[in-house]
Amino acid sequence: MGILIHSARLVTDRAETADAWIRLDGDRVAAVGTGAPPAPRPGDEVVDAREVAGPGATLTPGFIDIHGHGGGGAAFDDGADAIRTARALHRAHGTTRAVVSLVTAPIDRLAERVAVVAELAATDPGILGSHLEGPFLDPGHNGAHDPALLRDPTPADLGRLLEAGRGTVRQVTIAPERPGGIDAVRLVVGTGAAAAIGHTDADAETALAAINAGATILTHAFNAMRPIHHRDPGPIPVAARDERVTLELIADGVHVRDEVMRMLFASAPGRVALVTDAMAAAGMADGAYVLGALDVDVTGGVARVRDSGAIAGSTLTQDAALRRAVAFGAPLADAVDALTAVPARAVGRADLGSLREGAAADAVLLDADLRVRAVWAAGARA
């Protein structure tokens, strides 16, 4: 039995197509067209997009979040059930696939958590693997990471974590100025994972050295890194001008002002990945939470470390990031690309993030206000 969705504006691969239809067959897109849809086959589910989502019905690929820490009251660090709970919250908001980001912890504990993610990834296609956001970070840009647990990226520690992941570690964030940082970038890339520059005091020259060593992601651009200065530009302009680099962006209006986000889209077209960096409070009420080893208070939807006042991740979902990006002036096709194909490529999954024929059957149906009305993940209604 397949699924035939028709009468939608299709937004995929940085293009918009009016009055489109697609057929999902199993976990793949079987066919795509425009105008009158083909006759349904026996047993097909037929979805009139306009009946479900109204006259502005828009169909996009499933969203892909390469940097998030939880949601629905659950943190990705807290085991398999917590990961499933948080993924359910974000899947309802259109995120059909995600990298599970883990915050700084002792190496033994991180290895255990990476192994849990590896087990889940073996059976759940919605989990793309893990992202080690720590502990190889700069204490001066620790954000919501416990500075007492930060350390230099030694081959032994990195090897232990990568081995625990059994090939499922997708991304490792490193402050490349730390002793051994550039070699660590090479080690990570050599295993097939993406090395990211983040939580860093790297100057422009060090950032470029890391990119030349193989780093291809800038972790949540502008946050927890040396800011732009006209005589000391830091990593942001270096990454923005380099075609090899994808720049993560948290489009919640808290981490980065709209004017700056607009500038980044213009500076790095096709290379901005909209991420949530969401913590357990995403989809939940204000209150007290924990991120890693740190107490966090959420007020007005903004999460901050209780002791330092530092921003502690977000309460963002990717559909809200889409609405914000379009509101600050990003073309819809570019904003959708930043939620789909761009993050997929960044973690080595160029087979995802599209609704072309043969692609994964992950789709999101939005109304005219870009609010989620239906989600399909691997061909099944979510």
UniProtKB/TrEMBL annotation:
<dbReference type="InterPro" id="IPR032466">
    <property type="entry name" value="Metal_Hydrolase"/>
</dbReference>
<keyword id="KW-0479">Metal-binding</keyword>
<dbReference type="GO" id="GO:0046872">
    <property type="term" value="F:metal ion binding"/>
</dbReference>
<feature type="active site" description="Proton donor/acceptor">
    <location>
        <position position="277"/>
    </location>
</feature>
<feature type="binding site">
    <location>
        <position position="220"/>
    </location>
    <ligand>
        <name>Zn(2+)</name>
    </ligand>
</feature>
<protein>
    <submittedName>
        <fullName>N-acetylglucosamine-6-phosphate deacetylase</fullName>
    </submittedName>
</protein>
<dbReference type="InterPro" id="IPR011059">
    <property type="entry name" value="Metal-dep_hydrolase_composite"/>
</dbReference>
<dbReference type="GO" id="GO:0008448">
    <property type="term" value="F:N-acetylglucosamine-6-phosphate deacetylase activity"/>
</dbReference>
<dbReference type="InterPro" id="IPR006680">
    <property type="entry name" value="Amidohydro-rel"/>
</dbReference>
<feature type="binding site">
    <location>
        <position position="133"/>
    </location>
    <ligand>
        <name>Zn(2+)</name>
    </ligand>
</feature>
<feature type="binding site">
    <location>
        <position position="199"/>
    </location>
    <ligand>
        <name>Zn(2+)</name>
    </ligand>
</feature>
<comment type="similarity">
    <text>Belongs to the metallo-dependent hydrolases superfamily. NagA family.</text>
</comment>
<keyword id="KW-0378">Hydrolase</keyword>
<feature type="binding site">
    <location>
        <position position="231"/>
    </location>
    <ligand>
        <name>substrate</name>
    </ligand>
</feature>
<dbReference type="Pfam" id="PF01979">
    <property type="entry name" value="Amidohydro_1"/>
</dbReference>
<feature type="binding site">
    <location>
        <begin position="223"/>
        <end position="224"/>
    </location>
    <ligand>
        <name>substrate</name>
    </ligand>
</feature>
<dbReference type="GO" id="GO:0006046">
    <property type="term" value="P:N-acetylglucosamine catabolic process"/>
</dbReference>
<feature type="binding site">
    <location>
        <begin position="311"/>
        <end position="313"/>
    </location>
    <ligand>
        <name>substrate</name>
    </ligand>
</feature>
<feature type="binding site">
    <location>
        <position position="255"/>
    </location>
    <ligand>
        <name>substrate</name>
    </ligand>
</feature>
<keyword id="KW-0119">Carbohydrate metabolism</keyword>
<feature type="binding site">
    <location>
        <position position="144"/>
    </location>
    <ligand>
        <name>substrate</name>
    </ligand>
</feature>
<dbReference type="InterPro" id="IPR003764">
    <property type="entry name" value="GlcNAc_6-P_deAcase"/>
</dbReference>
